[in-house]
Write a structure and sequence with these properties.
single chain; about 120 residues; mainly alpha; elongated
Length: about 120
């Protein structure tokens, strides 16, 4: 149990660091063309940074639970990890809704750029 807790904790922390690094460096070419784009990317960065912190903190709690072993502290740490991962799922849903709203509002601009018309409903 100790070794599994160490592996899982360090893996979760490394995953959070890697995600944060990819968010900072970028997944590809990002063109900031308008104020709407800048606002969306700023909000997305803040939201995803929260997720990265929650992942890293969950990894830290798993490490703490591994060192303390089964008992009260172990149970509390794992309950907090469970709650944090549920919060991560909720934040992912919020991020998906934010991205969908951004794409919906960006669609007329994309139509004008590629088709030369604006047939938005």
């Amino acid at each position: 149990m100790f070794a599994g807790g160490l592996i899982l904790g360090f893996t979760l922390i490394a995953f959070a660091v890697w995600l944060h690094h990819r968010e900072q460096v970028g997944w590809g070419e990002r063109r900031d063309e308008s104020e709407m784009d800048n606002l969306y990317f700023a909000r997305r960065t803040v939201g995803r940074r929260r997720v990265h912190v929650l992942f890293a903190f969950s990894g830290g709690l798993i490490l703490v639970s591994a060192f303390f072993g089964p008992g009260f502290v172990w149970g509390v740490c794992w309950m907090l990890v469970m709650v944090q991962l549920l919060v991560v799922v909720v934040l992912a849903i919020i991020d998906a809704a934010r991205t969908q709203r951004y794409h919906r509002s960006k669609l007329p601009e994309i139509r004008r750029q590629f088709l030369g018309d604006d047939k938005s409903p």
